[in-house]
Recover the amino acids of this structure.
């Protein structure tokens, strides 16, 4: 693959020299980079799992795989770059840099117009030569931008990379600091970028109010609930410490597909025969099933006592759980994490509906009063400048029901929205299936051995549609 030199795309008009975006306490806790990639095919009915070479064989990139001139009569990279410049008139902080306000010991964004990093690339292969793009693997990681910064300059907050393929398809990858955009905000950012590229202008007005003001604690802050937001290990012998498991933690990413009917059946199976257990969502049922599968695979492949706990961290969208509620175009983090804990023995022996009940109790606690108490709790303590998750947790992230598939640059909707494999370790991701399977979901998890994978799949066997 051949990449052009990165450039910094800047807003069309300079920002005021004193312009600063204040970050919320929630933003502070998510000071790390995350990525997402959208694949666009020149064929309207591309099969995601098909490959010209059979058996999902992947054609590796190397220095000879490049193409000049570009296949498209329209220069996709140029269109996206011009749209990005126009977009930055509405998102000026995206072209800024994170800055530590030492007088307040708080992170903020200086709107200094240093620019959003943009890279255009060309691969002398077909999109289908990548193999199954729904499965994260190192070749796809090459399609994500590498953050570039010089010693005297802080790294950009946002970076984009457009990669063209011989078939006329292309990939658009976004890497951003989570302190600036969460998954919902990133999807709206790309949605507006595509709308401008089509010539339709901004479609969802971004709400760029001071996040510090929007997520304001009470004065004085008065927490009224207990908030173990960053739960510390009470005793090393009490929790599964993922860092103490085999050192080769970067195993193969396993992708498990659940079609819409399988998810519906899973939900029905959880509910059946329990008159006092009224309802649950497909999302809650799937988290419970995957949590149980992970516990079984650990307990039976590692020398771990069954009393050891395996907490799971679940993101909660609080956009509708605040007073007043956050707008659809709010630019910033509108998620909090709840931690649900259970022992390996509990997870292996309890029926799914009782595990779902544990998850529901944690999720239903997020009332407007609870969220306000959380903001007050963060204000009372020292807000971390960088989030360091406890290694004993099984982290979970979700991109389902986010509007990434509405991101149409004028050449059709993306066939798939994926993630880099380097982002997967010790985490569970749930994503929309994409394409004709958009109503189904994909789960991504890293498993280190064939035995671990076999035991993991035994728990899921009745509901799995496709796996690799």
């Amino acid at each position: 693959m051949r990449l052009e030199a990165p450039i910094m795309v800047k807003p069309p008009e300079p920002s005021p020299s004193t312009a600063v975006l204040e970050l919320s306490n929630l933003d502070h806790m998510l000071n790390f980079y995350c990525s997402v990639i959208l694949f666009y095919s020149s064929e309207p009915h591309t099969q995601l799992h098909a490959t010209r070479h059979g058996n999902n064989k992947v054609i590796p990139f190397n220095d000879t795989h490049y193409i000049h001139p570009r296949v498209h009569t329209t220069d996709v990279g140029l269109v996206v770059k011009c749209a990005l410049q126009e977009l930055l008139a509405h998102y000026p902080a995206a072209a800024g840099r994170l800055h530590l306000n030492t007088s307040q010991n708080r992170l903020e964004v200086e709107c200094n117009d240093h620019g959003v990093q943009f890279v255009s690339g060309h691969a002398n292969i077909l999109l289908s030569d990548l193999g199954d793009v729904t499965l994260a693997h190192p070749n796809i990681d090459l399609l994500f931008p590498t953050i570039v910064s010089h010693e005297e300059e802080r790294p950009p907050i946002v970076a984009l990379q457009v990669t063209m393929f011989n078939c006329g398809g292309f990939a658009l990858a976004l890497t951003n600091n989570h302190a600036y955009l969460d998954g919902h905000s990133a999807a709206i950012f790309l949605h507006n970028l595509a709308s401008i590229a089509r010539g339709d202008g901004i479609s969802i007005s971004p709400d760029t109010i001071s996040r510090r003001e929007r997520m304001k604690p009470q004065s004085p802050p008065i927490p009224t609930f207990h908030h173990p937001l960053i739960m510390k290990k009470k005793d090393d012998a009490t929790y599964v410490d993922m860092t103490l498991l085999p050192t080769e933690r970067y195993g193969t990413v396993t992708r498990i597909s659940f079609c819409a009917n399988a998810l519906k059946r899973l939900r029905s199976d959880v509910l059946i025969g329990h008159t006092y257990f009224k309802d649950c969502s497909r999302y809650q049922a799937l988290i419970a099933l995957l949590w149980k599968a992970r516990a079984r695979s650990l307990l039976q492949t590692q020398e771990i006592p069954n009393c050891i706990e395996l907490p799971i961290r679940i993101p909660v969208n609080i956009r509708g759980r605040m007073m007043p509620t956050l707008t659809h175009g709010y630019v910033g983090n509108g998620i909090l994490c709840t931690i649900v804990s259970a022992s390996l023995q509990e997870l292996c022996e309890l029926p799914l509906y009782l595990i779902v009940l544990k998850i529901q109790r944690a999720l239903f606690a997020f009332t407007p009063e609870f969220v306000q108490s959380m903001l007050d709790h963060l204000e009372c303590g020292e807000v971390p400048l960088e989030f360091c998750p406890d290694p004993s947790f099984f982290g979970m992230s979700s991109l389902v029901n986010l509007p990434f598939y509405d991101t149409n640059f004028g050449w059709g909707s993306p066939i798939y929205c994926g993630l880099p494999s380097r982002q997967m370790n010790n985490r569970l991701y749930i994503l929309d299936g994409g394409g004709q399977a958009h109503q189904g979901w994909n789960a991504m998890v890293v498993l280190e051995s064939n035995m671990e994978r076999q035991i993991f799949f035994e728990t899921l066997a009745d509901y799995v549609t496709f796996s690799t």
In short: The chain has eleven helices and 17 strands. Residues 187 and 404 are 5 Å apart (CA to CA).
